[in-house]
Request: fold
Amino acid sequence: MSPSANFSSFVECQLDRVDVLLMRVGSSQVGWHCQDGIVRSLSETDRDDGENLLRRELGANPLGIAESEKWIGGNWGERFYRYCTDTLGGDFSRVELLTDDAIVEDCARSGLKRLILWAIDPQESLWFARLISGKVRQSWHQLIEVNVLTPDVAAGKAQTGEAEVESLQHRLKMEVLPFALQDAIEADEPDRFVLAIRDFSGDNAFSTALERCAPSLARQCRVLHLHPHPVATSETEGSDESAARYKITTLADDNWALDRLRAIAAWRQGWFQEAATRLAAYPNFYGGVLSELARRLTLLSRGETHRFVHDRDLGIESWLQDPTFSQLADPNLVELWREQLAYLKKHPYAEAWEATFSVERLLQQGSYTRGFLHFAQTLEQLLYLQYKDRDWLAQGLIVDRDRPKSAANANLYQPGIKQLISAWCKATRQDKNGSVYRLFDRIGNTRNAILHYGGAIPFDDVLLVWSTTGMPVEFTRPQYVGLMARMKETLSLACDRNWKIPEPTLGQALSEWGLGLVISHG
Reply:
């Protein structure tokens, strides 16, 4: 089966995940495994005396039947469904999915949770949908929930041309697709949700209606279109063989140009979750590897540096091992970034410094209060690492009233930022009247004031932290650049002179590489 010409907005891709499979149902999809070992399509009763042979399966006398008594196609679906439920006691094992067996099997392996069967009309195809439902429930009962959508009565009325397309488009938008996407709304990561739609052979109206819904649909989840190959007939036995192959396509060219620009804008601003959502629908445009990178950079932008560095599945390590990434990036860069990750895991101070990536994104987005708090938290973390490494407590650098009363409590003691700043200034012999001491003290006071009183700090007030201590921020365009430079200088002052801080950070290097790849793939 060749895909409809109307689906010019789809390109080929691989099946790696499916959450919901939507199938339009017709008679040509269902066959019956007859007692003579031959599989016969329930839609082709006029081939090789097929009608009489199928009647025999149901126990009906194939001889002497008047022309007026011939069963219509709709009766076949209902008769075989009743035969499975009543005579065979609910056994659908002899039902064959001629065009969809491989599709359902592969989707089940890819995590399929729900199959939606949409009958074309309330008579013939509704019974075939129920046959397919019985087969799937029996064969994949532990994996898949099956829903049969009962068609409108009006669906059985003949419609042609634009009227038919508009009717299908309305039902898709108002009923079928919202029902299919209800799981995506509740999903933890909706941008990863995959809806697969099985192509219906010869139904150009359905393909056209679906294409019209495709742009808005692709912004809600990833959409795959499955095109099964034609059912083959064995030359030796006359048996209809299930289609073992099918083509997979996904939304592409028509929306890529616009979504690419939106992904670039979001990436530049540090809105990595939005960038991931935009790119996830386009795996053929490096979208798969780039959306996964953006997803991991989201961890950094949220301040989840530890997960970014150490989580084996959701962190950056699994992404750096992705073969697709290795094929896209310069081998020297791949090795460099893997070594940098290993360095971050081994040296907590380097991991702490990685948070500067998040600080800069927050300032860039105009979140000055959050950016300043994250900066102060990073400063506190760098000081705390020295507190532990150099045992400032044992050296008496924590003032007497703050020291724990016993050695047992010493290991549990967690000094605050003001105690750490005071101890660091003593350890580094900072003059209490000097600019560095006054700067650190101002940072600690400002940070505590924000947290204790639940206030916000505008950009100009952040600048005052430095200007009032004799270290004014250079004016730049954009304005956050000068502030970020001063923040990094301040954090550098708090670092042990023996520490080797990687620059750029791993997050910054990967962000620039990913953005460059999106920009270059126009």
Notes: The chain has 23 helices and twelve strands. The CA atoms of residues 391 and 518 lie 47 Å apart. The chain has three domains: 20-30+96-251, 257-347+501-521, 366-498. The two ends are 32 Å apart (CA to CA).
